[in-house]
Design a protein that fits this description.
Blueprint lengths: L1 E6 L3 H13 L3 E7 L2 E8 L2 E8 L17 E9 L6 E5 L22 H17 L5 E4 L12 E8 L1 H4 L2 H16 L6 E5 L6 H9 L3 E6 L9 H9 L5 E6 L9 H10 L4 E3 L1
Parallel strand pairs: 1-4, 1-5, 5-8, 6-7, 9-10, 9-11, 11-12
Antiparallel strand pairs: 2-3, 3-4, 6-8
Helix pairs in contact: 1-4, 2-4
Length: 272
Protein backbone atom coordinates (compact mmCIF):
# COMPACT_ATOMS: atom_id res chain seq x y z
CA UNK A 1 0.00 0.00 0.00
CA UNK A 2 1.08 3.55 -0.78
CA UNK A 3 0.05 6.48 1.40
CA UNK A 4 -0.28 10.08 0.25
CA UNK A 5 -0.62 12.44 3.21
CA UNK A 6 -1.52 16.12 3.41
CA UNK A 7 -2.06 18.43 6.39
CA UNK A 8 -5.23 20.47 6.81
CA UNK A 9 -2.95 23.21 8.15
CA UNK A 10 -1.07 23.36 4.86
CA UNK A 11 -2.59 25.42 2.01
CA UNK A 12 -0.25 23.92 -0.59
CA UNK A 13 -0.67 20.35 0.63
CA UNK A 14 -4.45 20.66 0.50
CA UNK A 15 -4.26 22.27 -2.95
CA UNK A 16 -2.16 19.38 -4.26
CA UNK A 17 -4.44 16.81 -2.59
CA UNK A 18 -7.53 18.35 -4.24
CA UNK A 19 -5.84 17.97 -7.63
CA UNK A 20 -5.07 14.33 -6.83
CA UNK A 21 -8.72 13.66 -5.98
CA UNK A 22 -10.22 15.61 -8.87
CA UNK A 23 -7.88 14.44 -11.62
CA UNK A 24 -6.51 11.04 -10.67
CA UNK A 25 -9.46 8.84 -9.80
CA UNK A 26 -9.20 8.77 -6.03
CA UNK A 27 -12.59 7.95 -4.52
CA UNK A 28 -13.91 8.43 -0.99
CA UNK A 29 -13.92 5.25 1.12
CA UNK A 30 -15.78 4.37 4.31
CA UNK A 31 -12.53 4.70 6.26
CA UNK A 32 -11.71 7.89 8.12
CA UNK A 33 -8.55 9.33 9.66
CA UNK A 34 -8.63 12.34 11.97
CA UNK A 35 -12.40 12.45 11.31
CA UNK A 36 -11.80 13.02 7.61
CA UNK A 37 -12.48 10.60 4.77
CA UNK A 38 -9.69 8.52 3.31
CA UNK A 39 -9.59 8.33 -0.49
CA UNK A 40 -8.29 5.39 -2.53
CA UNK A 41 -7.51 4.01 -5.97
CA UNK A 42 -5.42 1.23 -7.47
CA UNK A 43 -2.08 2.11 -9.01
CA UNK A 44 -0.65 -0.91 -10.77
CA UNK A 45 -0.92 -3.83 -8.36
CA UNK A 46 -1.02 -1.64 -5.25
CA UNK A 47 -3.67 0.27 -3.40
CA UNK A 48 -2.95 3.96 -2.93
CA UNK A 49 -4.59 5.89 -0.10
CA UNK A 50 -4.88 9.64 0.36
CA UNK A 51 -5.39 10.82 3.94
CA UNK A 52 -5.36 14.09 5.85
CA UNK A 53 -3.72 14.89 9.16
CA UNK A 54 -4.64 17.62 11.63
CA UNK A 55 -0.98 18.03 12.56
CA UNK A 56 1.72 19.94 10.76
CA UNK A 57 3.07 17.56 8.14
CA UNK A 58 6.55 17.55 9.71
CA UNK A 59 5.08 16.42 13.06
CA UNK A 60 3.65 13.11 11.84
CA UNK A 61 6.24 10.87 13.50
CA UNK A 62 3.44 8.52 14.61
CA UNK A 63 1.84 8.07 11.17
CA UNK A 64 2.92 4.43 10.84
CA UNK A 65 0.93 3.58 13.96
CA UNK A 66 -2.20 4.15 11.87
CA UNK A 67 -1.06 3.10 8.40
CA UNK A 68 1.52 0.48 7.36
CA UNK A 69 2.45 1.59 3.82
CA UNK A 70 5.37 0.53 1.68
CA UNK A 71 5.86 4.17 0.68
CA UNK A 72 4.68 7.52 2.06
CA UNK A 73 4.48 10.64 -0.10
CA UNK A 74 3.97 13.84 1.88
CA UNK A 75 2.18 16.53 -0.13
CA UNK A 76 3.46 19.76 1.31
CA UNK A 77 4.16 23.44 1.10
CA UNK A 78 7.70 24.67 0.73
CA UNK A 79 8.71 27.94 2.36
CA UNK A 80 11.85 30.04 1.93
CA UNK A 81 13.00 33.55 2.77
CA UNK A 82 13.94 34.15 -0.87
CA UNK A 83 10.40 33.35 -1.99
CA UNK A 84 11.52 31.80 -5.28
CA UNK A 85 8.71 29.80 -6.91
CA UNK A 86 9.96 26.24 -6.53
CA UNK A 87 8.80 22.65 -6.90
CA UNK A 88 10.98 20.26 -4.93
CA UNK A 89 11.48 16.74 -3.63
CA UNK A 90 13.49 15.35 -0.75
CA UNK A 91 13.66 12.65 1.90
CA UNK A 92 12.72 13.65 5.46
CA UNK A 93 14.85 13.06 8.54
CA UNK A 94 17.46 14.76 10.69
CA UNK A 95 21.11 14.46 9.73
CA UNK A 96 22.26 15.98 13.03
CA UNK A 97 21.23 15.97 16.69
CA UNK A 98 18.84 18.86 16.01
CA UNK A 99 15.16 17.99 15.55
CA UNK A 100 13.66 21.48 15.45
CA UNK A 101 11.03 20.64 12.82
CA UNK A 102 9.87 17.21 13.91
CA UNK A 103 11.40 13.79 13.56
CA UNK A 104 14.11 12.29 15.73
CA UNK A 105 17.67 13.53 16.32
CA UNK A 106 20.32 11.78 14.23
CA UNK A 107 17.76 9.67 12.36
CA UNK A 108 16.76 9.85 8.71
CA UNK A 109 13.88 8.19 6.90
CA UNK A 110 14.40 5.53 4.24
CA UNK A 111 14.95 7.27 0.90
CA UNK A 112 13.00 6.15 -2.22
CA UNK A 113 15.54 7.53 -4.69
CA UNK A 114 13.94 6.26 -7.90
CA UNK A 115 10.49 7.61 -7.00
CA UNK A 116 11.99 10.99 -6.12
CA UNK A 117 13.91 11.12 -9.40
CA UNK A 118 10.83 10.27 -11.46
CA UNK A 119 8.83 12.92 -9.60
CA UNK A 120 11.57 15.49 -10.17
CA UNK A 121 11.89 14.66 -13.88
CA UNK A 122 8.15 14.85 -14.42
CA UNK A 123 7.94 18.16 -12.57
CA UNK A 124 10.68 19.58 -14.81
CA UNK A 125 9.01 18.26 -17.96
CA UNK A 126 5.59 19.69 -17.07
CA UNK A 127 6.97 23.05 -15.96
CA UNK A 128 8.74 23.39 -19.30
CA UNK A 129 5.75 22.22 -21.36
CA UNK A 130 3.39 24.60 -19.56
CA UNK A 131 5.89 27.47 -19.47
CA UNK A 132 5.49 27.92 -15.73
CA UNK A 133 7.83 30.23 -13.84
CA UNK A 134 9.04 27.66 -11.32
CA UNK A 135 12.45 26.25 -10.47
CA UNK A 136 12.60 22.49 -9.95
CA UNK A 137 15.09 21.14 -7.43
CA UNK A 138 16.21 18.49 -5.02
CA UNK A 139 16.42 19.65 -1.45
CA UNK A 140 18.76 18.12 1.08
CA UNK A 141 17.52 15.61 3.65
CA UNK A 142 15.91 17.65 6.43
CA UNK A 143 13.07 17.96 8.98
CA UNK A 144 10.67 15.36 10.31
CA UNK A 145 9.38 12.78 10.36
CA UNK A 146 12.18 10.20 10.74
CA UNK A 147 10.57 6.96 9.59
CA UNK A 148 11.57 3.34 9.06
CA UNK A 149 9.38 3.41 5.94
CA UNK A 150 10.43 4.82 2.55
CA UNK A 151 9.24 8.43 2.58
CA UNK A 152 9.51 11.50 0.38
CA UNK A 153 8.19 15.04 0.27
CA UNK A 154 6.76 16.58 -2.90
CA UNK A 155 6.56 20.30 -2.29
CA UNK A 156 5.09 23.48 -3.75
CA UNK A 157 6.57 26.83 -2.76
CA UNK A 158 7.73 29.19 -1.69
CA UNK A 159 5.05 31.73 -0.62
CA UNK A 160 1.28 31.86 -0.22
CA UNK A 161 0.87 32.96 -3.84
CA UNK A 162 2.46 29.72 -5.04
CA UNK A 163 0.72 27.56 -2.42
CA UNK A 164 -2.61 28.67 -3.91
CA UNK A 165 -1.48 28.19 -7.53
CA UNK A 166 -3.72 25.46 -8.98
CA UNK A 167 -1.58 24.99 -12.09
CA UNK A 168 1.55 24.37 -10.01
CA UNK A 169 -0.37 22.13 -7.61
CA UNK A 170 -1.56 20.09 -10.58
CA UNK A 171 2.04 19.67 -11.74
CA UNK A 172 3.02 18.29 -8.33
CA UNK A 173 -0.01 15.98 -8.26
CA UNK A 174 0.61 14.75 -11.82
CA UNK A 175 4.31 14.18 -11.12
CA UNK A 176 3.65 12.17 -7.97
CA UNK A 177 1.08 9.92 -9.65
CA UNK A 178 3.36 9.41 -12.65
CA UNK A 179 6.17 8.37 -10.32
CA UNK A 180 3.94 5.93 -8.46
CA UNK A 181 3.01 4.27 -11.77
CA UNK A 182 6.67 3.89 -12.78
CA UNK A 183 8.62 0.86 -11.56
CA UNK A 184 11.99 1.93 -12.99
CA UNK A 185 14.95 1.48 -10.64
CA UNK A 186 17.73 3.96 -11.33
CA UNK A 187 21.45 3.86 -10.47
CA UNK A 188 21.51 5.53 -7.06
CA UNK A 189 23.99 7.74 -5.22
CA UNK A 190 24.09 9.94 -2.14
CA UNK A 191 25.07 13.59 -2.53
CA UNK A 192 27.45 15.46 -0.25
CA UNK A 193 28.10 19.20 -0.19
CA UNK A 194 26.61 22.27 -1.77
CA UNK A 195 23.60 24.35 -0.75
CA UNK A 196 20.22 23.33 0.63
CA UNK A 197 18.86 23.41 -2.93
CA UNK A 198 21.49 21.60 -4.92
CA UNK A 199 20.96 22.55 -8.56
CA UNK A 200 24.19 20.74 -9.52
CA UNK A 201 22.78 17.43 -8.27
CA UNK A 202 19.40 18.32 -9.75
CA UNK A 203 20.96 18.86 -13.20
CA UNK A 204 22.75 15.51 -12.98
CA UNK A 205 19.48 13.76 -12.13
CA UNK A 206 17.63 15.50 -14.96
CA UNK A 207 20.25 14.79 -17.62
CA UNK A 208 21.51 11.31 -16.70
CA UNK A 209 20.12 8.04 -15.29
CA UNK A 210 21.48 8.87 -11.82
CA UNK A 211 19.05 9.13 -8.91
CA UNK A 212 19.95 10.83 -5.64
CA UNK A 213 18.87 9.44 -2.30
CA UNK A 214 20.00 11.38 0.78
CA UNK A 215 21.74 14.72 0.20
CA UNK A 216 23.98 16.18 2.91
CA UNK A 217 24.34 19.98 2.55
CA UNK A 218 27.52 21.87 3.32
CA UNK A 219 26.02 23.47 6.42
CA UNK A 220 25.59 20.03 8.05
CA UNK A 221 28.93 18.49 7.11
CA UNK A 222 30.73 19.60 10.28
CA UNK A 223 28.36 17.39 12.29
CA UNK A 224 28.36 14.36 10.00
CA UNK A 225 30.13 11.26 11.32
CA UNK A 226 30.67 7.71 10.08
CA UNK A 227 27.42 6.52 11.64
CA UNK A 228 25.34 9.06 9.73
CA UNK A 229 27.11 8.33 6.44
CA UNK A 230 26.37 4.66 7.02
CA UNK A 231 22.71 5.53 7.67
CA UNK A 232 22.53 7.45 4.40
CA UNK A 233 23.69 4.37 2.51
CA UNK A 234 21.72 1.75 4.43
CA UNK A 235 18.50 3.78 4.70
CA UNK A 236 17.94 3.94 0.96
CA UNK A 237 15.57 1.67 -0.95
CA UNK A 238 18.02 1.10 -3.78
CA UNK A 239 21.63 -0.05 -3.52
CA UNK A 240 23.79 3.06 -3.21
CA UNK A 241 26.59 2.79 -5.75
CA UNK A 242 28.70 5.74 -4.59
CA UNK A 243 28.78 9.21 -3.10
CA UNK A 244 28.93 12.25 -5.37
CA UNK A 245 30.80 15.14 -3.75
CA UNK A 246 29.97 18.72 -4.69
CA UNK A 247 33.65 19.46 -4.20
CA UNK A 248 33.46 23.25 -4.37
CA UNK A 249 30.48 23.07 -2.04
CA UNK A 250 32.49 21.55 0.82
CA UNK A 251 34.65 23.77 3.04
CA UNK A 252 38.34 23.00 2.68
CA UNK A 253 38.78 22.08 6.33
CA UNK A 254 36.18 19.31 6.03
CA UNK A 255 37.26 17.79 2.72
CA UNK A 256 39.96 15.45 4.09
CA UNK A 257 37.74 14.29 6.95
CA UNK A 258 34.87 13.49 4.60
CA UNK A 259 37.10 11.59 2.17
CA UNK A 260 38.64 9.59 5.02
CA UNK A 261 35.21 8.70 6.42
CA UNK A 262 33.99 7.47 3.03
CA UNK A 263 37.16 5.40 2.64
CA UNK A 264 36.70 3.85 6.09
CA UNK A 265 33.18 2.83 5.12
CA UNK A 266 34.29 1.52 1.71
CA UNK A 267 31.93 3.91 -0.07
CA UNK A 268 33.09 4.78 -3.56
CA UNK A 269 33.22 8.49 -4.27
CA UNK A 270 33.34 10.88 -7.21
CA UNK A 271 33.96 14.63 -7.19
CA UNK A 272 31.62 16.73 -9.34
Amino acid sequence: MILLLASVKDVAGMNIAKQVIQLHGFEKTSRTFNDKPVYARRIGNQQALLAFTNKEITETQDITEFFQPELIVFLSRHASHAGTPTLSVHTPGNLTNQAVLGGLPNKISVSPASKMKKTLKTMAKLVQEQNLDYAVSYECTHHGPSLDTPAMFAELGSTLAQWKDKKAAKVVADAVIEALKDSTVYPTVIGIGGPHYNYKFTKIALTTDTAFAHIIPKYAISEINDAMLKQCVERTVEKVEKALLDWKGIKGEYKPRMVEALERLNIKMEKV
